[in-house]
Amino acid sequence: MDAAAAGPQRGTARRKGWGRLLLRVAILALAFVAMVGFSVVLAKVTLTPSPASEELVKSNLHPGRSLRQYAEDYTFVAACKQAGGNLVLGMPFGILLPILVPRRLRMLRMFLLTVAVIVLVELVQGAVVPGRAFDVDDVILNTAGALLAYLLVGRRLSHRYHVLAEGAERAPADRPGTAPRTEPKPRPKPASRRAGRPAPVWSRLRHGVRRRAARGRSRKR
Fold this sequence. Notes:
Radius of gyration: 36 Å
Order of helices and strands: HHHHHH
Structural class: mainly alpha
Strand content: under 5%
Number of strands: 0
Number of helices: 6
Helix content: over 70%
Shape: elongated
Largest sheet: none
């Protein structure tokens, strides 16, 4: 009866394991394709030459300078577009990278990768692309957008993916020709060391003294 019941259970576990594995591969491939598409969009947005603004754009190495310029020299709508665009541009990092990186320290990994990519893009802008310049405030805004997206969406999404991936890895394979796993039997507890041993010498002497004292009292009575 046990062997007959174990067969369907192994088949069900095998199907669930393969289903989880296929779903994991599909999610990973979709995240990778989305990351590649985002990289293309990022390159077009940030690495497109702008000769008209070549004389106006200057490099900014002081955090907050461009943000103050947005608040003082730009209209409210233009400032929101400039700052909000940089925030939105960093959000895909906070959604896609936590899925592609390992689960351990995924927030730190995502943060470091985002900063590395954005700094590289800004350096290429300032060195190669006409009309573009390195701006540390863009790095700050892009990174803030990545962290915001991670806290709102990326953390839950990556958590579900990694839980699914761990479930697929832990599911029993139950391949043909392999015996089912059995739980190890608990080891019997060793018998007490004191059982069967004679009492210590001092204990016997103490009981002997007590008995003699009791006999002496009974005789006096």
